[in-house]
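[job 0412] stage=fold_complex status=start
inputs:
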Amino acid sequence: MITQKIVDPEKIYDPSEKESLFITGSEAVKEALRRANVDMAIAYPITPQSESMHLAGDLFAEGYIKEYFRGENEFAVMSSVAGAAMAGVRVFTATGGPGTLRAFELFPTWAGARLPIVCSFMTRGINSPLTIQPDTIEMACLLDSGIIMLHAETAQDLYDMILRAFMIAEKTDVHIPVGVFCDGFFVTHTRDTVEVAPAEMKLPPYDAYSSPVPAMDMENAPFRHMRDPFVMKSNFISYATHASWQQEVMAACERSRKYIQQYLGSLIETEHPDSEILIISSGTAISQGREAMKSARAMGLDVGLVKIKSIRPFPEEEIRLLARNAKHIIVPEFNRTGWMAREIKSVIEDTTKVIAGPRVFGGMTMPPESILDEIRRCSK
Amino acid sequence: MRNLFQVSAAFEDIMPAEYKSLIENGPFGGDKGVTDLGTFKELLEEHPLCAGCGLALSLRLILASLPNPEHTIIVGSTGCSALAFPQAAVHNIHSLFGNQNAVASGLKRALSLRFPDVVKDVVVIAGDGATADIGLDMVMHSWFRQERITTIMLDNEAYANTGGQESGMSQEGAVLNMAPKGKNFSKISVPELAWASGCAYVAAVTPANPRKLQSAVRRGILAARETGSSYIQVYSPCPTNYKFKPNQTIEKVKSREKDGTYQVREYISDEAQLLFDRLEEVKNG
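[job 0412] stage=fold_complex status=done
writing structure:
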């Protein structure tokens, strides 16, 4: 382990000297964690996530992470991660696909307990039949779980988003979990050039007392929360307590917008946003969209692109305004349900502009030609 | 007593009486135990549980037995006991049904990172459904991993809070909801599972003998601090679902002990025994 120095997060995010590595997405997770001053990581294997948590284990063995173990299943791991966060440490884990669903009950609980956990989801298909192939269907399940959801397109995004997720999650006025999603295999198992900050730098440590709820450490006065547990009562006060708490979790997610803008520039990225045809999506579907856009533009077609980086909070206003000028909106997705198209339709004024496809699932790749076909149909 | 608990002078006139009484006459910083009950302000302020609830009695005794309530964090689970914890003056967590030992594992390790020089006791207190059924895998894996936590089961032999369904801890033949023809397998031997899983200290006790219960809780917590996991099972019969009179709870316990269907027992590892002997020697000077 090399000696690291705590630096201002901005210096890690935009260092004057960058190092360029040719690494996999899983290795990008490792490089982010190396610089993130993580106290604890808890692991459980599932394809295509496993390698990232092996590498977190290597960081533990080298001394960059202070505590690490393999739990007994994803539900247990997400529970142990919750316990660690309640005790006031910075904690990381990762899962994907069936693991996400096995652990599902924990995610709304994390948000409700205001825990700033960072979890990476390497997405894959959901059984049955058994599949390990890339698919973003699990993201649809998590849309209303209360967690912040960032979607990485590339290994660079994955590194950037994980390293920034801790700072976003830990803001007192946010203090809810951040899920950093990437498409399994396409991002985790492929190599790409990733620019990283010098390894001598690390983030400032988490301050347990920046939390809007008390750390469970018997270091703040432990006096009784209430005379009667609300769960037993059927009265206005108990309903209002639960409702206002839930609203506050939603408000915390809303308040994260300014920090996502601060650390990631914006919730979206655009190329030729004033075009007649816009391809709007997230993850590697947008990479394929970009290839299709390039081909289309070479043919003289007026096509632009919108990459959505933040799924929760959703860039509602940004998408609404962009959609106003477009005649057609093509939404390529790596899942069967088209949840991203539904999200877009839910915020724009004229939903007839949306073409909910192409949709690819079951592990197939998405040829840019399939998106180009949609562009051609719109251009007739 | 730690400054943490002291009332700021500026707030003295507005603090509730029961808060002040916890500071002036509570268990923090003192050496209170079950034989002092009735003479000090308890950690549990009233409770919403049924009249004659064996679980409520056990919980009072357990909380009075904690060797260091100033540095104790309790992890609970869903069930009747979850209704009492919001009224306990000690940090306590309710996460989900059955995940208590997994939460406690992460909590204890994280507290050890943050406070390497302070002993923070992490004690799981959950019902039999949470411990022996829905959470059994996480309970046992915390033992396999030798997590430094104490697991206490409040065993009322049923899912009481959901209306009296059979649990793995119900006796064979018991007619309960979801066992309309009687339970057709025997009560799970969790103390023996705990022992086989590597717990350093295991006990099955009852609230009919408060001193024995206190000894088990203290031994369990001391063993968890220095040697490994510990498990304590407390028979806490439920008058509401087993339909006996609320004033017969202790009689019920005693009759079950007498007919041998609830056996008080203790398993102590050599290492834990050495620890207890050493502590006994120190105490006796």
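[job 0412] summary: The domain at 49-158+165-283 of chain B is CATH 3.40.50.970 (Rossmann fold).
[job 0412] exit 0
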